[in-house]
């Protein structure tokens, strides 16, 4: 886990909820975690501060009028829903738990507005228990580094197997801060720390991919400026959500993420312009398997080269990215011309 050690040397400071947790007050950790959902850190900080001046415990939360609570929670995302949830939460905490926040997973999960992510954070930060809170940042970055899962829940299970316990409580804070600043959904690898890049498997893939594009002189083009010349193209397709997609006589589950399709435009009357535009039009009559995927995914980037290198490129990409079966070509024996990269 050298990469975590190196990152710890770089990332200083605490996310808001971790800062609030220093008071070791489970009520405040629970409430601020609920406030933080779909809300920027600065807003969570401002709103929590305002709220905790007036609402210090479950009794205060029970007493406060829902409208007043709403105005204290504004401008947190979904502040009206959160006010309603917090009022329900106060009622359950008072009636079932004598005004205290329970300290085990099952009981926490039975509370209104509390899912596994919130419960894990409360257990680890407020009760100092060995738990891993997997939010979107922890899920994304740990998948880029050391696990291969589809959902945050699966990541939590996998991380418990691969991550030494000494990192369980701190990984959330570390990766939340790193994910917000550098390793976001679109990673800013050019701004990343050199020592992290050297250890990052995802960066190695992106670098190898770029090397292949450079080797064959691929350049990125806008859909409106595709030249009518022959050559090879790569479509980078983004699939927002995992989906079962039928193509030809087959069907398979396509995970959410990026797909790279390698195609060629070398026949008589066939050029890059008319071939790629046909993909872009999403025609009803599908001619290529890839067009079934394009019904659901969006072309994010188009790369072209005037070299006829479709199969060479496909073979090289199969050593870097995950080949998708069923997309091989009849001309060569390559595994596929479609490749997957996790987001
Ligand atoms: S090199 Fe890129 S993918 Fe790897 S940790 Fe840094 S930003 Fe994230």
From TrEMBL:
Keywords: DNA damage, DNA repair, Glycosidase, Hydrolase, Lyase
UniProt cross-references to CDD domains, sorted A to Z: ENDO3c, GIY-YIG_COG1833
A molecular function (GO) term: oxidized pyrimidine nucleobase lesion DNA N-glycosylase activity
Span of domain GIY-YIG: 228-327
SMART domains: ENDO3c, GIYc
Keyword Hydrolase: yes
TM spans (from-to): none
Substrates-to-products reaction catalysed: Hydrolyzes mismatched double-stranded DNA and polynucleotides, releasing free thymine
Keyword Isomerase: no
EC numbers for this chain: 3.2.2.29
GO annotation, biological process: base-excision repair, AP site formation; nucleotide-excision repair
Family: Belongs to the Nth/MutY family.
Name of protein: thymine-DNA glycosylase
Species of the source: Methanocaldococcus infernus (strain DSM 11812 / JCM 15783 / ME)
